[in-house]
Amino acid sequence: MDWLMGKSKTKPNGKKPPAEEKKQYLELEYTKIRVVDFDLKELVVLPREIDLNEWLASNTTTFFNLINLQYSTISEFCTGETCQAMTACNTIYYWYDEKGKKTKCTAPQYVDFVMSLCQKLVTDEEIFPTKYGKEFPNSFESLVKKICRYLFHVLAHLYWAHFKETVALDLQGHLNTLYAHFIVFIREFNLVDPKETCIMDDLSEILCSPAPQPAPTPSAPASTSSPSAQNHVTER
Ligand SMILES: [Zn+2]
């Protein structure tokens, strides 16, 4: 099942998010601001003697909480009127319900769906077991990938539609650090298809340099490939 539909330029009658004319978040004034200044890669590599699934579970849960928190700082500005669709760069994300039915929804609705789903998954003892010796389900990796993919959408929307407000709150350093840490993490474990994250590559390259090896490992499972991602309209 493909969860992403990339489509459409700005609607002629739609309100333009301010960042659309110019990517303010790429300006040096902002990209140089980070809360930490050391190699993020060291934070994400699997520590020796730690089980891979345990590591993925704990990091994914932490990213879910931090991204939820970051979004909450600007959530009052993300309304059905300001953000009629879940946009990021030239992409509109549509929500697909559990039966695979495509739903058009506003950005705050989409984020609410994402956060509710993530909350449900990370607190499910059968999927994210916390008790010692309890096994992870076979579906664990694909669920982690799903969560990371949705969290990426939220981060991309924060930059695309709410960077100005983030700057007004003086939280751009936190956002940049969170974003860079997240991107380095998902790259390290091939958790999100690069076709999905490419819309933000310009920022990722600045914030995550030096970039890790670009090619995903050939052994990476195909999982949820997204052919429609190729339909993205780029205006660059
Ligand atoms: Zn919004």
From TrEMBL:
> Where are the compositionally biased (Low complexity) regions?
220-230
**Sites where the protein binds Zn(2+):** 78, 83, 157, 162
Q: Which SUPFAM superfamilies match?
A: Mob1/phocein
Is Metal-binding found in the keyword set? yes
Q: Name one Pfam family in it.
A: Mob1_phocein
The protein's UniProt keywords, in alphabetical order, are: Metal-binding, Zinc
What InterPro entries does this protein's entry cite?
Answer: MOB_kinase_act_fam (IPR005301), MOB_kinase_act_sf (IPR036703)
Ranges for the region named Disordered are 1-20, 210-236
- Highest rank taxon of the organism: Eukaryota
Q: Per the record's keyword annotation, is Translocase included, yes or no?
A: no
Q: Spell out the protein name for this chain.
A: MOB kinase activator 2a
Instruction: Give the originating organism.
Output: Takifugu rubripes
